[in-house]
Design a protein that fits this description.
Length: 232
């Protein structure tokens, strides 16, 4: 079965409506309080994110939530459409065979990080990386890039540049006049892809192509290095 998720942002009243709908169908609506991307597991039929999840395991990386218009809102992620409940337009995540024509050079990554929009929007804690985070990335990097030296500074630049490209796109495709930005690196070099999957970043683009970060590969069992299509 092809991967398909419907994501809806809402308040507590919307959540009550959704919960009642699932109860009528005999579907359990589970909550996720620590790791946002875990609701993207295909095996989780219906789940929701409480605000506390954005202050969980990835709290620095997901701090963008608290700086966004989504702050305080709840997110329901379902394997089936809930459009009949009139709870707003969904974010639809599906598989894709998209492959970018090119990715940025080292010099272009630096320019993405220097973007005024990125510098203005980045959370105050964004650059406060804890040693345990570096260890996590080193473990995964050495597992997949055994013959390359680990350089966290380079990896972190990619993290920043990737988010920047969804705020102020420099790497995108033009689809019938639409700007469609995409992740600018592979799974080893991006982080907090949930921000793009759930439109915390890049909500102004009706279509975008997003590579799962290592966390999403590990916790949501999403495919390594494969672009997913995100439509609003």
């Amino acid at each position: 079965m092809n991967y398909l998720k419907f994501c809806y942002w809402m308040d507590v009243h919307g959540l009550s409506k959704v919960r009642e709908n699932f109860e009528e169908k005999g579907i359990q609506l589970t909550d996720e309080a620590r790791i946002p991307c875990r609701v993207l597991r295909s095996s989780r039929e219906a789940a929701y994110l409480a605000s506390s999840a954005w202050y969980g395991l990835c709290k620095r990386r997901t701090s963008w939530y608290w700086e966004s218009k989504k702050a305080g809102k709840l997110l329901v992620v379902s394997n089936i459409s809930l459009d009949h409940l009139d709870i707003g337009n969904p974010i639809i995540i599906t598989e894709s065979n998209f492959k970018p024509d090119r990715l940025p050079s080292s010099e272009e990554i630096v320019q993405l990080v220097k973007s005024q929009e990125f510098q203005k929007r980045k959370p105050p804690v964004w650059e406060n990386v804890e040693p345990i985070e570096k260890e996590f990335y080193q473990t995964w990097f050495e597992r997949h890039r055994a013959n390359e030296p680990f350089d966290f500074k380079k990896i972190f630049m990619n993290h920043s540049a990737n988010h920047s490209n969804f705020l102020d796109p420099k790497f995108f495709i033009n689809l019938d006049g639409l700007i469609v930005p995409y992740s600018i690196a592979d799974s080893i070099h991006v982080c907090s892809a949930c921000l793009e999957f759930f439109n915390i970043l890049g909500s102004q683009w009706s279509i975008k192509y997003v590579v799962p970060c290592i966390g999403a590969v590990l916790f949501a069992h999403l495919p390594l290095n494969q672009y997913l299509k995100v439509e609003t």
